[in-house]
């Protein structure tokens, strides 16, 4: 209305406030007919609300601060019985305030004394990689089982999802060593029957043979025992252009190759039927080949300061403390 008083047209007002001409015209008409009273909400259709703000606050407090007798968390029915409201009413309140008592998640905090230094080191590689250097995220996905269902898989049909027997036959395991190129998203992978330092050294040798000699190699990996044996330490000593960067303990999320492993599991392993480890390895390598035909790097957006600040907020919340500046 103030913009209209300044002489702007409906179209100009719509552009200014981010709406359409029809909405501007409707409110100008209401103001012309009822002046200031015309700008108030009109009575809405439907029955009036049967539960007040105090009752809603009481249900929220009970949900957050108490548990039902003999149970670990509230359900819709138990809360409805406790408060005397219909389950649908409880559901609407929980939904409005984002409460889901039936859900629970786990967390694990790193106790690595060099957590801060390692986070800054690795995130720095992701956001500001060194010139003339290759940054690789390396890890192994061990003990991948070759599973065959006892009964044939029933294919998806209209109105019916794919169905499979919940019983299966094991045909052995394989371990995948993989290296993700952070810059391109391309993955080098090799399957072995075991995942010892011997196999890891063979995998490193394969990468070394395929990386141009003029490049340094920065490799991000976790603290697995196979990565820190005398054999591997000696290998890095013989290859000075390789620079290992170890992730903090209990922090696999910072190694980007884990995201590739998650996609591999979801798209090629979990629902696959593999009658031997050879079939399983063929499926894994087929997925890697398909991925490398159109690789896309993962976008790392969080700075080290963002990550450390989020961890700090979480720790303070868990301890029930306020920010004391430490």
Keywords:
alpha/beta; 12 helices; 326 residues; 3 domains; Nucleotidyltransferase, domain 5; five-stranded mixed sheet
Describe the structure.
A five-stranded mixed β-sheet has the order 3-2-1-4-5. It has three domains: 2-39, no CATH class; 53-96; 117-304, Nucleotidyltransferase, domain 5 (2-Layer Sandwich). By secondary structure, it is α/β, with parallel strands linked by helices. Helix content is 43%, strand content 15%. The model is unreliable at 322-326 (pLDDT under 50). The chain is built from twelve helices and five strands. The protein has helices spanning 2-5, 10-17, 21-34, 53-65, 76-83, 87-96, 115-127, 197-210, 230-238, 257-269, 277-293, 304-319, and strands at residues 133-149, 168-181, 187-192, 216-221, 242-246.
* CATH homologous superfamily title of the largest domain: Ribonuclease H-like superfamily/Ribonuclease H
Coarse structural class: alpha/beta
Tell me the strand order in the biggest sheet.
Answer: 3-2-1-4-5
Count of individual beta strands: 5
Taken as a percent bin, the fraction of beta residues is 5-15%
SSE diagram, text form:
Blueprint: H1 2-5, H2 10-17, H3 21-34, H4 53-65, H5 76-83, H6 87-96, H7 115-127, E1 133-149, E2 168-181, E3 187-192, H8 197-210, E4 216-221, H9 230-238, E5 242-246, H10 257-269, H11 277-293, H12 304-319
Parallel strand pairs: 1-4, 4-5
Antiparallel strand pairs: 1-2, 2-3
Helix pairs in contact: 2-3, 5-6, 7-12, 10-11
């Amino acid at each position: 209305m103030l913009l209209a008083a300044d002489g702007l047209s409906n179209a100009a007002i719509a552009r200014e406030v981010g709406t359409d001409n029809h909405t501007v015209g409707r409110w100008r008409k209401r103001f012309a007919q009822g002046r200031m009273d015309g700008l108030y909400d009109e009575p809405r259709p439907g029955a009036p609300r049967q539960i007040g703000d105090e009752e809603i606050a009481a249900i929220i407090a009970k949900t957050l601060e108490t548990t039902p007798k003999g149970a670990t968390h509230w359900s819709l029915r138990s809360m409805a019985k406790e408060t005397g409201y219909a389950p649908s009413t409880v559901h609407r309140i929980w939904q409005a305030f984002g409460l889901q008592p039936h859900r629970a998640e786990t967390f694990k905090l790193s106790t690595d004394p060099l957590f801060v230094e390692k986070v800054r080191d690795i995130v720095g590689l992701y956001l500001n990689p060194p010139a003339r250097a290759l940054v690789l995220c390396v890890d192994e996905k061990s003990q991948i089982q070759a599973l065959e269902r006892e009964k044939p898989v029933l294919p998806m049909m209209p109105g019916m999802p794919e169905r499979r027997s919940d019983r299966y036959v094991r045909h052995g395991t394989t371990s995948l060593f993989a290296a993700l190129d952070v810059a391109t998203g391309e993955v080098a992978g090799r399957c072995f029957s075991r995942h010892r330092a011997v196999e890891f050294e063979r995998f490193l040798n394969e990468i070394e043979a395929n990386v141009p000699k003029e490049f340094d190699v920065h490799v991000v990996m976790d603290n697995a025992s196979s990565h820190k044996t005398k054999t591997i330490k000696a290998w890095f000593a013989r290859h000075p252009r390789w620079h290992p960067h170890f992730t903090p303990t209990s922090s696999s999320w910072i190694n980007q190759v884990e995201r590739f492993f998650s996609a591999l599991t979801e798209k090629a392993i979990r629902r696959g039927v593999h009658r031997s480890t050879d079939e399983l390895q063929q499926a894994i390598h087929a997925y890697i080949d398909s991925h490398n035909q159109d690789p896309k790097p993962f976008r790392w957006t969080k700075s080290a300061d963002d990550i450390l600040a989020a961890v700090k907020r979480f720790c303070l919340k868990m301890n029930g403390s306020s920010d004391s500046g430490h």
